[in-house]
Amino acid sequence: MFKVQRIYDFNPTEQDCAVFVDRLYPRGVTKEKFARCRWLKEVCPSSELRKFYHENPQTNYPEFVRLYRLELGNDPQQQGLAMLKQLEKSRSQVTLLTAVKDVEHSHIPVLLQTLADFTE
Q1: What residues does each domain of the chain span?
Q2: Which InterPro entries would you find in this protein's record (predicted)?
Q3: Which of 26, 84, 101, 114 shows the greatest Cβ crowding within 10 Å of its Cβ?
């Protein structure tokens, strides 16, 4: 099972399996806190796509979703998705960490849907 949480609210414990799924290092997060999670850039939107979305989030979101789904079909992204699914099989819960403020209108819902549909 995947759970989503903002990294700023994350309080790591020994049992946590947490994966940071943003392309850029989160501002203000200590290296100690960040060291308690994995950083999986392979499943993040490309820098170009991220910049496109941030030019005008309301207008560009539908196209961002379409293009991000296409990116997730590429080989490195598929390997990242497979890694997340393996973690899900070996752990009862995997926390996907993000720094975005508006999680509902970000790459996270697309990633979650892709993981739900993913078959190896």
Answers
A1: 2-117
A2: YeaO-like
A3: 84
